Amino acid sequence: MSTRFFGDTAVLLGRSLRHITRSLDTIITTTIMPIAFMLLFVYVFGGAISTGSDAYVNYLLPGILIITIATGVSYTAFRLFLDMQSGIFERFQSMPIARSSVLWAHVLTSLVANLISIVVVVGVALLMGFRSGAGAAEWLAVAGILILFTLALTWIAVIAGLSAKSADGASAFSYPLVFLPFISSAFVPTDTMPGPVRAFAENQPVTSIVDAIRDLLAQRPVGSDIWVALAWCVGILVVAYLFAMAAYRRKIS
């Protein structure tokens, strides 16, 4: 059974990746907004924001990476919705394939596309002056956090793609996710915020994830932030996966 699952997922993943390569504009679109935010905040607002960092782009980049992922997963919901509407799911169900492999192919496609977008954004950040003395271990830890976060948000996107009534509705779920980093430590330190806003910012997942990535890249002691970040990522991933599979079973029953 497991062998069939992996084989079926690999075949369907190839199908989804071919769609990506034929429409590279989706990856370009995914990177435009985060890069625009990075340019705006570094070159327009950066001089007025005090973060205690040598270069504001170093402080800003972790939050921009989160926005990149939040933007990218909207396309997963959109593509999944289109597959549902085209009847391709019904055709897959009539074939001897593992049922969950259809969803996992979309999820893994999202992971690949988002990793490409992240590499592009980091490349632009390097041109803007981003520098990090982090070693291989720190970069691997950053990659691990970003992969977990991408998987968590992608499974939320699966729920949206399965439940939406329109293509616009399928991708609109990502708007709050894109907005969330603005009420966190992604752009400014939380201690500059008024009381209620600060309380929310310090106790939502983006802040711990951003702080952990920022400390890793700056080679500072990470402390408990990395464990809080991992707990958020794993918790969201497990809950979203369970709800997505329940929604999928209702759709195909």
Number of domains: 1
Oligomeric form:
single chain
- Strand elements, count: 0
Question: Which structural class should the secondary elements be placed in?
Answer: mainly alpha
Outline: elongated
Biggest β-sheet strands, sense, barrel: none
Rounded to an integer in angstroms, the radius of gyration calculated over CA atoms is: 19 Å
Share of helix among residues?
over 70%
Show unreliable segments: none
Kindly, what is the distance between the CA atoms of the first and last residues, rounded to a whole number of angstroms? 21 Å
What's the mean pLDDT score? 85
Order of helices and strands: HHHHHHHHHHH
Report the β-strand fraction as a percent range.
under 5%
Give a description of the structure.
The structure is a single chain. The chain is mainly α and 253 residues long. It has eleven helices and no strands. The chain starts with a helix and ends with a helix. It has one domain (2-252). Helix 3 (56-86) runs parallel beside helix 6 (136-163). The protein has helices at residues 2-22, 25-45, 56-86, 88-93, 101-127, 136-163, 167-172, 174-179, 195-202, 205-217, 225-252.
